């Protein structure tokens, strides 16, 4: 139970909430197409990959295996095929909540170049991060139960989805036990992976540019008074 929850948290942190940005119930062709992706590009020693596998690669797949030089290209091909089949089910709005193929491949390359630090960070996410997330979700009315349904404007769903990602990110980033466990260099690698996996609808680049600009402006304000 705890492990599952911990995995859920880290998945959300990695930018890929598994309960589905896109509703596939109205998309009967997706399962056949995903099977075809696996038939077209089998990957040695990796069982057939699904939508949730590819959206959560650092958890649900063995990175050491998929990143090996003999498999990485096949993995990227098959996973992109699965990703595109999934995105294909969403309308233009909902598509913006799923990372695009080029960004996805880039994130995988980055994860493969940094397997050690990424696995280490995932192992540092503990109970105190979970407590923070649950508390903030409850206070900000961002629990699962508060998910807006399709009768509401898309922006309501998007705001809810992106706010949940943001809560997870902030709770993890600021948690003292987590920080003591990871070390700063490693945390920045994970944050970069997270940024790469952030879908455009949640401001893939704007949030990070905004926060680094803020930092620069705070620093320059500070310098003025030195
Ligand atoms: C991942 O695969 C490697 C190489 O086959 C293996 O040594 C390792 O134990 C696996 N890790 C997990 C978590 O299964
Ligand atoms: C599945 O493939 C068929 C044939 O290429 C295509 O018409 C359909 O749109 C695809 N569906 C999805 C969800 O990718």
From TrEMBL:
The chain crosses the membrane at residues 203-223. The keyword Transmembrane applies. The keyword Signal applies. Keywords: Membrane, Signal, Transmembrane, Transmembrane helix. It comes from the Eukaryota. Residues 1-20 form the signal peptide. This is Uncharacterized protein. It comes from Lottia gigantea.
């Amino acid at each position: 139970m705890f492990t599952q929850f911990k995995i859920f948290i880290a998945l959300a942190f990695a930018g890929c909430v598994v309960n589905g940005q896109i509703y596939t119930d109205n998309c009967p062709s997706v399962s056949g197409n995903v099977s075809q992706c696996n038939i077209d590009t089998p990957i040695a020693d990796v069982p057939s990959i699904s939508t949730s596998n590819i959206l959560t690669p650092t958890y649900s797949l063995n990175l050491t295996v998929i990143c090996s030089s003999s498999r990485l290209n096949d993995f990227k091909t098959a996973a992109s095929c699965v990703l595109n089949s999934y995105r294909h089910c969403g309308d233009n709005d909902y598509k913006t909540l799923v990372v695009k193929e080029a960004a996805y491949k880039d994130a995988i390359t980055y994860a493969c170049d940094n397997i050690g630090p990424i696995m280490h960070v995932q192992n540092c996410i503990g109970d105190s991060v979970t407590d923070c997330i649950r508390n903030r979700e409850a206070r900000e009315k961002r629990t699962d139960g508060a998910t807006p349904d399709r009768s509401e404007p898309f922006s309501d769903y998007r705001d809810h989805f992106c706010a949940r990602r943001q809560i997870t990110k902030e709770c993890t980033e600021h948690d003292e036990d987590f920080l003591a466990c990871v070390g700063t260099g490693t945390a920045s690698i994970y944050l970069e992976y997270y940024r790469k996996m952030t879908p455009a609808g949640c401001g893939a680049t704007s949030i990070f540019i905004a926060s680094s600009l803020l930092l620069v402006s705070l620093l320059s304000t500070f310098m003025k008074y030195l």
